[in-house]
Amino acid sequence: MSENYRQMWTELGLDLKAHDALLGVLSEAYQNIFMAQDNRPEAMSYFDFVMSEVHGLRIKELLDEKAAGRKIIGSYCVFVPEEIALAANATLIGLCTGADFATEEVEKYLPRNTCALIKSAFGFKLGRVCPYLETTDMVVGENTCDGKKKAYESFKDIINNLYVMDLPQVKSANGKALLKAEYVRFKEAAEQLTGVQVTAESLQAAIKLVNAKRAAMQRLYQLRAADPAPISGLDALLANQVFFYDNPERFTASVNKICDELEQRIKDNTGAFPAKMPRILVSGCPQAMPNWKLPAIIETSGAVIVGEESCVGERGVRNLVDESGTTVDEMLDAIVERYFKVDCAIFTPNCDRLQHIEQMAKAYNADGVIHYGLQFCTPYLMESMPVQKALEQKNIPCLRIETDYSMEDMGQLKTRVEAFIEQLK
Amino acid sequence: MRGFAGIDIGSRSIELVLVDDAGQVQQRLQADTGFDPMAEAKRMLAQVEYQQIMATGYGRNLFEISFDATTVTEIKAHARGARACFPTAETVLDIGGQDSKAIALFATGKVKKFEMNDRCAAGTGKFLEIMAKALGFSLAEFSEQALAATSDINISSMCTVFAESEVTSLIGRGQDRQAIARGLHQSVVRRVKTMLNRVSTDGDIVFTGGVANNACMVQFLEEALQRQVLVPPQPQFIGAYGAALLAAGLD
Known about the structure:
Chain A is an alpha/beta fold. Chain A has 19 helices and 8 strands. Chain A is globular, with a radius of gyration of 21 Å. By secondary structure, chain B is α/β, with parallel strands linked by helices. Chain B folds into 2 domains: 1-86 and 234-251, Nucleotidyltransferase, domain 5, CATH 3.30.420.40; 89-231, Nucleotidyltransferase, domain 5, CATH 3.30.420. Chain B is built from 9 helices and 10 strands. Chain B has helices at residues 37-45, 60-67, 74-85, 125-135, 139-148, 160-172, 177-199, 215-225, 238-247; strands at residues 3-9, 13-19, 25-32, 50-56, 70-71, 91-95, 100-105, 111-116, 205-208, 229-230. Chain B has a 5-stranded mixed β-sheet with strand order 3-2-1-4-5. In chain B, strand 9 (205-208), helix 8 (215-225) and strand 10 (229-230) form a beta-alpha-beta unit. Chain B is globular and about 60 Å long. Classes of the chains: A alpha/beta, B alpha/beta. The A-B interface holds A 392, 397, 402, 408-409, 411-412, 414-416, 418-419, 422-423 and B 58, 61, 72-76, 99, 110-114, 116, 118-119.
């Protein structure tokens, strides 16, 4: 990223030295992990460009939007409805939580035994290296796991625009009513922030915009069922990650362009990897930008990832909002219906998730499932055991991985993953 | 005729096994890994003649690059080696210097499922080595003395660092060294038992890796699991032996 942005970063209050270091690591990792791949779809060049401008052009766009009167809302969870933000003339940005940063500072606020994702959210703030966070007019924290909800209590001391959204933990009528009430409250908060009322017109347009974005991703997922896999799991994960902060129209068009190319590849029987390669479904905790550790190991060990059962993946994108509503209230109900189906491990019981893992393994012709758990993430680590048991009963091999963002267990992870791939051959 | 070699580059030692095309062992070599495993591997390779070599162990990827070899994980290598010694075995336990693995096999010998210890040294050969040293025993004495103990002490720490300080404080309180040694073996057995039970719950267990030379571990494992524990001759060579068999195409 060029010198042109230094002024902008300074004005955002970033620690330029630390930020340079972060960008250096990021760019090197991107070169080694993404650019080193063979047979990438040509249309991935859009994402290469997005990544080369990840803290540059996109931030400038957001600042231009702000100058034109829009507001920027940041979020850490797929339960925060983008439709409502957009309808209130705000842009929703998923904030990055996929790398360790300023760990010593973070541990002044959080116990060491906190999952890497939560620590990362604090690290990017305390290290002053996330321009997205610094452009936000409001940050939504959500009551998902215990770790996150207690962390937000401390987070409000270090950011001045935190809004906390409550979430249900049971899929009951009461649970749904709570989600509705919280979405209504969020609508009001967004309206207050922007000074723009959500109307039936603006909400309907927002629903269509986000549906189109999700439909493009769903199209991409389905194309990955082909053998040979037309796109690597790494490239597909990148699209899933960029989903959270790119301009929605442009993102949708770019993903559809990739899909057109993948359809042609499938017709031509060409792929990112040779045919008959072991195929893996990754399931579990979200792999937030720039967490590429596990997929990089898998795809350099002789297997291809054909799906992500994850919030940064199909769990976050599954299901569209019904577009038939005509009033704001009907549309809010439709939004609640859609989001209430998200099978996050904070719900108890969470039987839908197990069914979805099995369905995805079948739909994408996966030979095995790798369950990705972040250390200290109680909900997903707890679920990993029944998931493994249920899959094994259906003769679907399952490897449970528990890791974090550090590189110290790379050797052991590689051995586990390689042994699992040997098992699938 | 030149044979087929398997090399197991572990955290503590390197083993090299040479087999003929029928899988019969022709040569066995062992050396400490040291700080330059590739130089050590090169010295060992100079002593054997082979047409194919397969590498396993944590150093396998480095070896692959340096020596243009094929690689296999320790899991598959130990499974293959164990089956060559005990053709009907369906459960393998490998405890090496830095990690331990429980492996379940299908009746065909193919790997069905495996579990590995987490990133620390708990439940590994390194743990036992450090504890033996803390008690002032050699590795051989450590096992013998534990078996000779007449009383039990429960060691609750799994972490090597915490267990070492627990041992130090037990010594400070004048506790019997034999009983402490026994408690330490029991603590590793408890750890391994959980791992084994996750992959398989019945049938004989083939115990491989350097720690299988420890008679106390074998006895305590049999008692804790109520399953027969079979130890192949020279169990520390089983990974390299399995890799050699795979190099020979004897899948």
